[in-house]
Design a protein that fits this description.
Length: about 200
């Protein structure tokens, strides 16, 4: 009986996880200043993979590249390119923030500790990682809702390793699909422009 109930509930849960957008939560009103810019205050607030507060506006960055990541994806080797990009540009003010997510293909099933160990051991990742978040569907982190409000549909992740370039104040500048590699020339030019602005 219990197994039958689980079998019936599974499609409902999977359908809920695949929703592309969700409205704002009723219990979190947007401050007036945030309404003017389209960026809610909570949109820049994450929790690090170590459980500490991580606010995009507190990173002392000139530009931030936010990337939703996964450990078991065909795009997972992009971690190496992201680390190279970070090393090459961090002195100029670029910070990369990895946002582990299990939203696509169940490709990030492990714990935060598993994710951190995987990234450090296999790719030498030193850029900040957040705890696991939903980047789509009803539990989507407010950052992604705000990015879609600002940039439109291109800001909505369709798979792992989708990228959003952000100003120091948390305002999204441009979004890039998963297929855009960290070494892409257009991405590099956009990052250079953001660092210089």
């Amino acid at each position: 009986m219990r197994l039958a109930m689980l079998a019936l509930a599974t499609p409902v849960l999977l359908a809920a996880c695949s929703e592309a957008t969700a409205g704002p939560k009723e219990d979190a009103p947007t401050p007036p200043a945030a309404q003017e810019t389209g960026i809610a205050m909570s949109a820049t607030e994450f929790t690090s993979i170590d459980g500490k507060p991580l606010n995009l506006t507190g990173l002392n960055a000139k530009a931030i590249l936010v990337v939703n990541t996964a450990s078991r994806c065909g795009y997972t080797p992009q971690y190496a390119g992201l680390q190279e990009l970070y090393e090459a540009n961090k002195a100029d003010g670029l910070v990369i923030v990895g946002v582990p997510s299990n939203d696509f293909g169940g490709q990030e099933p492990g714990s935060e500790e598993d994710v951190k160990s995987f990234c450090e051991i296999n790719y030498g990742v030193t850029f900040p990682l957040t705890k696991k978040y939903a980047v789509t569907g009803p539990d989507q982190h407010p950052f992604y809702k705000a990015a879609v409000t600002t940039l439109g549909e291109p800001a909505q992740p369709k798979w792992n390793f989708h990228k959003i370039l952000v100003r120091a104040d948390g305002t999204p500048i441009k979004a890039y699909p998963s297929s855009v590699k960290p070494g892409d020339k257009a991405l590099a030019a956009d990052i250079e422009a953001a660092l210089g602005s």
